[in-house]
User: Which sequence fits this backbone?
């Protein structure tokens, strides 16, 4: 199994929408991928509540069946469709993929 985790710090405002509004939209888009991509076991977007200097705003957590499934996920049209919005709202992104 592959765990695919991305941590994001978001811009305060994009396209007239606040950070909080963009988080709600991003959560719906990300979690809307569940059940639509072969090999994607689950994906969720967690929202930080601690708001410390070391915090990020959101964490994308996903589990995939294999490395090959991660490659399918990365190129899948459902995933590709949400990328323009997600890329537009973040200012920092940190990624880790690991196998268990």
Assistant:
């Amino acid at each position: 199994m592959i765990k695919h985790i991305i941590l994001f710090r978001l811009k305060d405002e994009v396209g007239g929408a606040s950070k909080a509004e963009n988080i709600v939209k991003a959560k719906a888009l990300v979690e809307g991928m569940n059940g639509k991509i072969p090999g994607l076991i689950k994906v969720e977007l967690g929202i930080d509540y601690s708001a410390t200097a070391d915090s990020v705003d959101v964490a994308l957590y996903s589990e995939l069946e294999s490395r090959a499934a991660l490659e399918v996920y990365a190129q899948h049209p459902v995933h590709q469709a949400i990328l323009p919005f997600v890329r537009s709202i973040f200012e920092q992104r940190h990624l880790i993929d690991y196998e268990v």
